[in-house]
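Hey, weird one. I pasted the Regulatory protein VirG sequence into the form twice and got a warning about non-standard characters only the second time. First submission, copied straight from the form history:
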Amino acid sequence: MNLQIQTFAPELTATILLVEDDRDIAEMLAETLQQNGYAAATAQSGAEMDRLLRRQSFDLIVLDVMLPGEDGFSICRRLRAEARTPIIMLTAVATDVDRIVGLEFGADDYVTKPFNTRELLARIRSLLRRASYGSERPERAGAMTFAGWRIDPVARTLVDEAGSQVFMTTAEFDLLVALCLNAGRVLTREQLLSLTHAGVAGPVERSVDVHISRIRQKLEPNPKDPSLIKTVRLGGYLFTPMVEPS
């Protein structure tokens, strides 16, 4: 099966990879992206995706769960081990378990079929903006330190006390930046979604809990008894360390 590449006008701000085995859906999404100023490439399997990724880089990947051969969950986990390119997963199964599995494997967002293309576009724009690829860039915070860690929102890096960089997904990094900028203040899940999605559509609220759990696994000395990110009953989350400019 031949890899289909569709590239549009040269002034496009981002290139998106659609990994979708349904040709009708892939063609519809590619056309929608074209109409909204993006470039797109399509692949119908993980193997085709791999061949394309060896040839060029992408700003965002839309990844279907049900694919021939390797499924989307496995592909997502593999991609996330190598890069932090934003990933939106598509699925025909609308269960919380599938959403959480996708998020735990490193997806940044999750959309259920059938979906509204305008909503999907809003989520794409949000992720691109958060990953600094979009044309609307938020104000940048300077590098900060807390509890032996150093986080740089511009370089999008997190470094531990030993100087080793710790990998984070786009969603995890943005949530941690929001917590650092609001240290000592309880933030509700709604506020965290608003702060990290710039007020447009984002993942289900429960995804915040999944991402916070993943952040704790990377930051906390004892993730089962967190001391840096406290859960406030009926409130949200509280970031306890002193945060200082670096």
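That's the output from the first submission. The warning seems to come from a hidden character in my clipboard, not from the data itself. The two ends are 51 Å apart (CA to CA).
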